[in-house]
Amino acid sequence: MTDNTEKPKGVSEAQSPSFQAQAPTKPVGRTLKVRKIGNSLGVVLPKDVLAKLRVGEGDELTVSDTPNGVALQPHDAELQEQIEAARRAMKRYRNALRELAK
Questions:
Q1: 3-class state of residue 17 by DSSP
Q2: What pTM, to 2 d.p., does this model score?
Q3: For FRET with 40, which of 32, 54, 97, 101 sits at 20 to 30 Å CA-CA?
Q4: Taking the C-alpha atoms of 81, 82, 84 and 88 in order, what is their torsion angle to the nearest 10 degrees?
Q5: Chain segment 10-22, per-residue pLDDT in tens
Q6: pLDDT tens digits, residue range 28-66?
Q7: Taking the mean position of all CA atoms in its chain, how far away is CA 58?
């Protein structure tokens, strides 16, 4: 397998030197159409986007809010379990954590 460093035609990565809340920037990249899929709405991801995410049919993605919009990442089951464990601990020790925060 060769390392292809060229970007496919029409694909570019958004590069913003600094985030400015007062002046939103126009998103850079590919435009995808929202389509009706059964009783839901969805977006079909192009083959090169799936390759960049390293996901395929049946894989899960995580959607996160970012200052610049939303981000898609491959779902990490181990990270998700760690987050759930932290939530359980915070709920159980809520009062102690509140006192420590003072």
A1: coil
A2: 0.47
A3: 54
A4: 130
A5: 444 444 444 444 5
A6: 677 889 999 999 999 888 999 889 888 888 888 888 888
A7: 17
Determine if residue 58 is left, alpha or beta; phi over 0 gives left, psi from -120 to 50 gives alpha, anything else beta: left
Position 92 scores a pLDDT of: 93
Number of H helices, E strands in the chain: 3, 4
Neighbours of 70 (CB within 10 A): 8
CB neighbours of 59 closer than 8 A, spacing ≥ 6?
74, 75
Residue-level pLDDT at 19: 42
Long-range contacts of 63-68 (CB under 8 A, 24+ apart): 67/19, 68/14, 68/16, 68/19, 68/25
48 C-beta neighbours (distance < 10 Å), count: 14
3-state DSSP call for residue 78?
helix
pLDDT band of residue 26 (cuts 50, 70, 90) is: low
Token pair of 42 as six digits: 């969805």
